[in-house]
Amino acid sequence: MKYITFNEESKVFTLRTKYSMYQMQVRDYGTLVHVYYGENIGDTEAAYRIICLDRGFSGNPYEAGEDRTFSLDVLPQEYSGYGNGDYRINALEMVHEDGSDATHLRYESYRMMEGKYSLDRLPAMYGSADEAETLEITLYDRITSLKVHLLYGVFHDLDIITRAVRIENKGEKTVTIQRAMSMEMDYPSRHMDLIHFYGRHSMERLTERMPLCHGVQSIESKRGMSSHQHNPFVILCDRMTSEKHGDCYGFALAYSGNFRCEIEVDQMEQTRLVMGIHPYHFSYRLKKGDVFEAPEVIMAYTRKGIGRLSRIYHDAYRSNLIRSKYVTAPRPVLVNNWEATYFDFNEEKLYNIAKAAKDIGLDMFVLDDGWFGKRNTDYSGLGDWVVNEDKIKGGLPKLVKRIKALGMKFGIWIEPEMVSEDSDLYRSHPDWTLRIPQRSMTRSRHQLNLDITRKEVRDYVMQQIFRVLDSCEADYVKWDMNRSVANVYSSALPPERQGEVFHRYVLGVYEMMEQLVTRYPDLLFENCCGGGGRFDAGMLYYSPQIWCSDNTDAIDRLKIQYGTSFGYPISTMGAHVSVCPNHQTGRTTPLETRAVVASAGTFGYELDLEHLTEEEKEIARKQIQEYKKIEHLIQTGDYFRLSDPFHNHDYVIWQFVSKDKKQTVVNGVQLRNEPNPHIHLIYLEGLDGQAHYKDVQTGAVYTGAALMNAGIPLPVGAGDYQPIQFQFQMIEDTDNDGAVTVRK
Ligand code: GLA
């Protein structure tokens, strides 16, 4: 074991990544205390920082006898129980058969393993023996014989530590878990900010930064999905931390259902963060021998600022979370017919869009909602996964054959978790939906959640869908989910297990997705949830890309994609060029600007290409060619946010740099033009300061140091919403024979 050690004498565990270090210690009465998480501190054990004093109104465990200085109420801990004298937010809570609810966890043992642990039925980062090591620490509750295994995955080179929890009932009696957080992190007295990502449908992952205040604050979803409203990724950082400098910590929950991240600043100015499944409407019964696993939290720390923290996540997800070959393979650039036709199409219309797409150099046609059952509006049809031959005459295989004959790939939209009341499926199986006995249902987009906690429901739906995918040899699937989960009750579960429905729903989704990716390993799979309502690390385990937002307006997308970039790789964000005036905002922006914004993501088009003028087609043709030239930078390079759209209202700029630093693309949008304008300088990042770089458009040559420290001026006076595009290529000094102008 290279990166995990246990000091038998001091009882300190140390986990090391390239630049970070994590320590915990077994202290008095088997208490597992959190000691340190931060920059590498060499061979020092930071346990000296923990000073125990007699604290008024903070009780002491009975075993402490006369010692009034040992109190769980103030000690930093790894995973706190309940009803044991710690009054702060806690990690684990259960009810026992006798109605009592105290849980007191003590250290029992540890084991270390090469490679990364995996979870049963839950997404998690993966890693071979060369990439990761695992530490498992077992805590136990003496009275109930409950074992709590704390799992730590250490990815040294990636600078990532993951955590998850496995709870095992070793006793004779049933226990009911009321709260099982995936992790807890205790910080000593320190003033920190919270950065989180809030929003709403069509305006997801907006960025908010605020100082932590005394008491408890939480970021959460109770909607059965990770949600448009909050995202299961948060950052804690020092007050002075910026993009380029300062201490920051990331916490990403790899889970796509209800979640809660709670943060408490306590009486001693200490901060505790817990993250995991939301305790709302949650309970889980563990009979003798049963096991429950809490989903994974992916943690990163750096002292090099928030930009660096994002790049740690980008690299980690691309190499050890996303499983698809498309994480690095070029992705077909697609056209999607949703904003072009909505429900109003026939086979000729679709074929003509595909033909126009081929003409401008696109690779794939995606048939969105409306192709199945009686799906002529969003009031009907979900659940009937058979092609609507009134709309697509001759059937889907025939149409797809024609489209493929153009040399195009074919993709299709599905929404497997749902049913419309007006559908054959609902008429024959009304009991297959989530539904609270005797109560009227909450509708949303006139559709209901199927009870996918039931295996027969999952299998039925997937069989229907597989039949369609097989018949058209689909190259791509867009899996949608267009309502929050409500009416939370499953007729297949007994009353005492109704608290499991939300979680079993998510496990059902994961099982269905696993079936899909196992059956079609080469499929390009895009997740969607009314845009970005399930944009989380859990989903990225199944699909390399997620439709970022139903809002395709280039200007709004600047904020949405900026916020998303904090926790997720750029190549995971589905982003399309759509028509103007934009359907969501009514705003008009130049076609070039729409392409610049969409190419900071998984690029595609979503408009009626037949209606483009010849001039626009020519512009689009060039955009597609240009995108293909820089796609590898987006998929594998480093990403830098050069401006903040929440504070800078003049322009938004970002930058991609290849890992070998030889190529860089600087893109952005000028938001507002002004008369008599300022000269705005932008400062590049991530280049080799010693090397020379040539501006691909003008031929001018600069040192990397000049581009980063002296900056480059933005174009002047171009108008509102104008695209900004620079590309620089490193030139070998020996090649610099005077043919290029060196800027003085
Ligand atoms: C959701 C998706 C859209 C589109 C529609 C179809 O809103 O996010 O992209 O697929 O559903 O109903």
Please characterize this protein's 3D structure.
The chain is α+β, with helices and mostly antiparallel strands. It is built from twelve helices and 37 strands. The strands form seven sheets. It has a nine-stranded antiparallel beta sheet with strand order 6-7-8-9-19-15-14-11-12, with helices on one face. An eight-stranded parallel barrel has the order 20-21-22-25-26-27-28-29, surrounded by five helices. Strands 5, 10, 13, 16, 17 and 18 form a six-stranded antiparallel beta sheet that branches. A hairpin with a 5-residue loop joins β16 (259-265) and β17. α6 (455-472) packs parallel to α7, α9 (554-565) runs parallel beside α10 (591-598) and α10 packs parallel to α11 (614-636). The longest helix is centred in the last third of the chain and has 23 residues, at 614-636. It is globular, with a radius of gyration of 27 Å. The two termini are 53 Å apart. 52% of the residues are buried. The mean pLDDT is 97. Bound molecules: alpha-D-galactopyranose. Residues 338, 368-369, 413, 480, 482, 528, 530-531, 547, 550 line the site of alpha-D-galactopyranose. Alpha-D-galactopyranose binds next to loops.
Brief rundown of the structure:
The chain has 744 residues and is of the alpha+beta class.
Which features characterize this protein?
744 residues; alpha+beta; nine-stranded antiparallel β-sheet; eight-stranded parallel β-barrel; globular; binds alpha-D-galactopyranose
